[in-house]
Amino acid sequence: MTSESIAANARIALEHLNDQIIGLTEQERQIENIVCDFLRSKDGKCCLLEGKRNSGRESVLRKVLHKYHKNLRVIKAGFVAADPTYQHNLAKEENDGYSVFLVRDADKLLSPQQQKFLYTMVDKATDHSWLVFFSVSRQDFAQNLQKQATSRIPKVQVSFKSTFNYEEYCSAMTQLLIPPGSACEEDDPYKEFISNLEYKKWLKPFFELKPFVTLKQIAAQLLMLFGYYFNDETIWNTDEIQREIKIIIDRANPSFSGEILLLNDQTLRAQCVFLCVWRLLQNKSSDGPLITPRITYRTVFLEFKKLVHTVYTSLDVISDIYVFRELDHLVKMGLLRADESANVTNTSFRKVWLSINDKIVKDSIQKLQLPSVVCDFFETVLK
Which of 54, 219, 293, 349 has the smallest count of CB within 10 Å of its CB? Predict the structure, then answer.
């Protein structure tokens, strides 16, 4: 087996990737029936596509329409809701050559004022022989409409709810890396190479927290790696491959944070100042329901001095200015956020808060290679 053979097959699989939609055969069949009926009868109609974000609604619709050489016009409901002029212009439009529409994020049109746009699209579907799909996330979308809208919105609905087990999830990865019906399927060495990746061992976190779209993103990165990066026999070895795969998987992991990598490059003092902020915020209540909990620079300095005097005197500083400078640096690096209000004339009273999820920070403490006593200090969260 040569690197050229693997690279060639990986590029073939990458070309097929966009067209691969997995686990939605029944939804594809339903949408194709709706489209076929519309093309045959020329009767305008509407349909709800119900499912979570990234559940494949638009991808399946585009795949079916491509098969019948039909263009799709996408209308973003957020624009409609935010801009009355945009809504007004759409309402005045005549038939301009499009016959299939998708209203994306139609949940944003549930307010009584915005539901008028729903009437408009339903009426235009009838007047101009349009096929209009409303993409919604809420299962109770139709129940939340006013009576006028309920009577107009169709009962036709395609639900995008994927139910699959871990074995099926791993099989989906195999299908993405070895597209059915492609030349990859005929290349036994390539199939063996893919099998040896043993992705069942590292896909579990994605199966538990992420949809198929993440699986597709990981497959794309792996195929790019195999198809374009490893093109030199001298680096085509198992250790190098596993090292690069680990980087891809770590970055795709739900718990990954680029800021944590940045924090890892900071000095020990900067890391400790950051973790002092995190530690203090664990039991800090906010000043309002929409305000993030925050603390003053002075409070952080006192917590840092507590760390120094309790467990690690080597970090001691002679003035609070050194801690304040570290806080300013962390804010500049995007690891923290600070109050920049003009009325904060005394740096001691400036407030600071996290820009990273606190659970991610907690999970990363062991990875920062802190002295053990410092690590223990921060893992003992204030009671």
Answer: 349
